[in-house]
Every structure is written in C-alpha cells, then in structure tokens.
Amino acid sequence: MLRDRTDTRAALWQIASGQRGYFTAAQALAVGYSYQAQRYHATHGNWTVVDRAIYRFREFESLPAGENDHLVRWFLWSKRRAVVSHTTALSVHDLGTANPSRIHLTVPPGFRQKDEAVILHRAEITDDEIEVRDGYRVTTPVRAIIEAAAAQVDQDVVDSAVADALARGLATRRRLLHGAQLFGARAELGIDRALRETH
To answer: Which percentage of the chain shows pLDDT scores above 70?
Structure first.
C-alpha cells in the first residue's frame, strides 16, 4: 500500500525537526521517499542539498539559526557516530575563551571518512561522558576540558574553561584531576596548572 504524500512528508518532518531541519537520504528513504523523489525535491528547491546524501528542509533556512545548527550536519555526515569534542565542545558549553577555526569530532577507532572542515580524534567515549543535544552529541564539560588539556591547546584556553566550569558548578577539582589522571600525563599537567590558577 502506497503511503499518502502528506504522511510521508510529516514523517520526515518529524525526524528533521529534531535535527534542526537536517536529514539524510537514508532517513528520507526509510519514510518513503525514493531516490528519484529525493532528486526531484532537491532539484526543485524544496530541500537544500547540504552535503552528499544530506539535506535540509528549505523552511528551516528562514528560521533564526541556532549557534550550533551546523554541528547536526557533521553528526549526520558521520552516520551518527561522531561526538563533538575538544575545543568545539568547550565552545558549545560556553566555557572559557575557546574559538576553534575547525570543528573537532571524536569518532570510533575504525572510522574512515575525512573532510577538510573537521579535525578527527579517534577514541571510544562512554555514555556518561556524552550529552545529547538537539540533533547531535557533545562531550561533557569535564571530558571536554580534559581533552583540550591532553591535546595541549593554549594553556589560557584550559585555564579559562576550568575557571568557568568551577564557577558554574559544572565540574569539581576532584573530578577534573581524576579524569586527567585517566587521560595521561599531558592532561594531568594542563589541568594541574589550570587549577593552580583558580583559587
């Protein structure tokens, strides 16, 4: 039985609305849009082509953009496997002075895709170190700070992120130190320095 067109659109809209208007070709196919129908909607401007097999409903283009809408696109690009991390995660959490020029994503070790716009880090991240946002995932404030310290970003960035996290109750000294110990010597050194700067 063929689905009614309005039902098909409503099903896709429901998926996309939780992803800031973005959706994948696979998601569209799953609700009933053939690849031929997808080409039609992209060609006629109903859907904006964002990347290979990633679209966005045109209506979302005219809505006020969320500061982190673009991160949904990269989550879908990674086939929902990436976690926003490092200084990009600090920026999402509004911690310190981090303002990365490229997007940092942590992906599983076997991940093979590449793109010039992103810096990929390979690691397994446990669920308790991840926060789910509207259409993407991001490392927790504690994990993001420790990742940044381990990556040896500017110490000022780590210092300011630690100060903000402590002031806002998003982290404790103990959790930061313990997490840094698990991450290794570089992380420990960066976190230790930052904690000495905050009294």
So the answer is: 96
Query: Model pTM?
Result: 0.88
What pLDDT, on the 0 to 100 scale, is given for residue 75? 96
pLDDT at res. 1: 38
| Contacts of the segment 116-124: beta carbons below 8 A, 24+ positions apart | 117/74, 118/74, 119/86, 120/82, 121/85, 121/86, 121/147, 121/151
| pLDDT tens track for 61-119 | 777 667 788 899 999 999 999 999 999 999 999 999 998 889 999 999 999 999 999 99
The one-character DSSP state at 139 is E
3-state percent breakdown (helix, strand, coil) of the chain, nearest 5: 50, 15, 35
Residues 6+ apart with CB under 8 A from 95: 141, 144, 145, 160, 161, 164, 165, 170
Between CA 11 and CA 157 the distance in angstroms is 43
91-103 core/surface letters (b: 16 or more CB in 10 A; e: else): bbbebbebebeeb
